[in-house]
Amino acid sequence: MLVRMAAGDLYRADDPELVELSLRAMDLTEAYNRTSARDGERRRALLVELLADVGEGTDIRPPLRVDYGRHISIGSRTFVNFGLVALDVAAITIGDDVQIGSNVQLLTPMHPLPADARRDKWESAEPIRIGDNAWLGSGVIVLPGVEIGTNTVVGAGSVVIRDLPAGVLATGNPARVVRDLPGDQTAGR
Length: 189
Prior knowledge:
Elements: H1 2-6, E1 11-12, H2 16-33, H3 40-50, E2 53-54, E3 59-60, E4 64-66, E5 72-74, E6 79-80, E7 84-87, E8 92-94, E9 99-100, E10 105-107, E11 109-110, H4 115-119, E12 122-125, E13 128-130, E14 135-136, E15 141-142, E16 147-148, E17 153-154, E18 159-160, E19 168-171, E20 176-180
Parallel strand pairs: 2-5, 3-6, 4-7, 5-8, 6-9, 7-10, 8-13, 9-14, 10-15, 13-16, 14-17, 15-18, 17-19
Antiparallel strand pairs: 1-12, 11-12, 19-20
C-alpha cells in the first residue's frame, strides 16, 4: 500500500502497514514535541529518525505534526516556527533557507469527490515543493500538488491552491501573485 500511496494512486489509510508507519511517526513527534529548546542534540536526532532528510542548521520549533515523516525532506538553514502541520502522504520537499511562519499547513492528501469512494475511505495525494529562500507567513495553507518557486513570499493566512512562480509576492484566498519581488533572485539557489 505504501508504494501505491507514494505514487499518488488511491489507497486506504487504514491499511495495517500505513497504520504502523503513522503510529511510529506519532511516537517520534510526541517525543520531539516534549523536548526542550536546550536539548538541540536530542531534537536533531529525533528529526533525523523521523524525516527523510533534514539539512544542517535547520530549526523546527515544536509542536510539529506529520502523517508519516518519511516523505518530508527539508534543506539546510531552514526555520520553521511553532505549529507546522505537514501531512506527508506524498512527498513534501522544502528547500534551503526557507522561512515558515507559525501554524502553517502543508497538505498533500486528497479525497475523491464521489460519495461512495469517500465512504469506502479511499484517498490519494500529490506532492508539495517549496523552493529555496521562500517565505510562508503564519497560517498559510498549501494544498496538494503545489510548487512554490524560489525566493517567493506567501502572505500570512493565504491559501495556495496552484503553483507560484519564483520571486513573487502572493497573498489571499486563493493566493494570487500581487507583484514581482525586487532584488537578487538568484540568492538561495
